[in-house]
Amino acid sequence: MEHAFTPKIMEILGKEFDKAAKDVYQSSPLLQYLNIKTRSAAHGSKARGAFANHYAVYVLVEDYINKGYLKKGDYSNYEGARFTDLFRRQRELPFGAKLQNHALNSRMNDEFKKYFPTCSFIPIMRNVATNRYWINENLLRIEVADKKYNIAPAILRIIDAYVAAKRDAFETFIAACEQLQSLKAADAAKVQEFIKKLLQPNVDARVFEIASFGILRHFYGGTVIYWGWTENDLNEEYLTLYKTGRTNANDGGIDFVMRPLGRFFQVTEATDVRKFFLDIDKVQKYPITFVIKSELPIPDLRTRMKEQAKEAYGIEEIVDRYMECVEEIINIPMLLERFDESIKAGKLNDVLNEIVVHSKIEFHYHEPIEVGQETEEEPSL
């Protein structure tokens, strides 16, 4: 696979291995894996950029080098890196402040095996009894034409270059948002065009979720409801949409919650009915509004959902019970309609400000890193 970031990888390998660079790359499944994992680097801020698997490799290779095994010593006798040290180091790295332990424990290995099923080695090894981790040295030491090379330093440089490219893209995105915030009303069309581009099917899932939240929060925010325990004692309250966590977190949570109605919203780019019904099961079949990153008409999405449910479950009663829990489907065209209504209500800048605030939070822009902050438990033994 060759993409826009591949020349950068080859440039780094060229500086490290000179004329042997291409042969080293072709002999290394781990370098080829990193090539696959860096294809979003040149796609800008709206391209998906995940760092968990990169950093799982990074911290172990860094530990390998820091302990001196690049130059001497028998790595097979190394007691292994402690999980707490690796986990803390991950969170010190750019974009790593909220990373969890999944990549270190299994996800990186699982994905690597998916791409290289015939490879005899897995990248990350661990002893669950001692909670110690190692990088597989067999994947670091490459032999080409009877000459041995160690790719550990090159791996760190490749990941550093990828992160720098993504950070530049995100900073450009934030700078564009902030520049738009300062535009006069006469330039509102530029703001509208910018936000609408965040709702395209090919944007990063995090950016799409943030833009969806900004639009829906201010669309619903102008609606007043009256509620109370008796008809003579009513409360007047505006609908308020709350974002419940970080985007795309795989934490089993629900993305948005609306007060005082108690509506749940889940943002998804999947069209697999099992994903929808898993979300419904999370909240014990409480009704959910799905915000789907799709341009398909809503009736088609609902029909597709029901047809897949019939194939998966076969029992009409079960299918109907799940479908009753789909309170509403919001697709990209509906988001655009609600955005237009918010613009008419004079809330264009409010939507933009919402996007800026949550983008900075999501991408850790100027966010201080609290080294040693314990917000994730160690994996169970």
Please give a structural write-up:
There is one protein chain. The chain is of the alpha+beta class and 381 residues long. It folds into two domains: 6-167, no CATH class; 183-346, Restriction Endonuclease. Helix content is 49%, strand content 14%. The protein has helices at 6-17, 21-26, 29-37, 52-66, 83-92, 102-115, 152-181, 188-197, 205-220, 273-282, 298-313, 316-324, 332-344, 348-362, and strands spanning 81-82, 124-127, 132-135, 141-144, 147-150, 224-230, 233-238, 240-243, 256-259, 263-268, 288-292, 326-330. The chain has a five-stranded mixed sheet with strand order 8-9-10-11-12, with helices on both faces. Helix 4 (52-66) crosses helix 6 (102-115), helix 9 (205-220) packs antiparallel against helix 14 (348-362) and helix 11 (298-313) runs antiparallel to helix 12. The longest helix is centred in the middle third of the chain and has 30 residues, at 152-181. It is elongated and about 85 Å long. Residues 42-49 and 366-381 have low confidence and may be disordered.
Radius of gyration: 24 Å
**Average of the residue pLDDT scores:** 85
> Which of globular, elongated, flat, extended, rod-shaped describes the shape?
elongated
Question: Strands of the largest sheet, in order across it?
Answer: 8-9-10-11-12
Task: Classify the secondary structure makeup into a structural class.
Answer: alpha+beta
Share of helical residues: 40-55%
- How far the N terminus sits from the C terminus, by CA atoms, comes to 38 Å
Strand proportion:
5-15%
Order of helices and strands: HHHHEHHEEEEHHHEEEEEHEHHEHH
Q: Given the structure, what is the number of helices?
A: 14
**Biggest sheet, open or closed, and with what strands and sense?**
5 strands, mixed
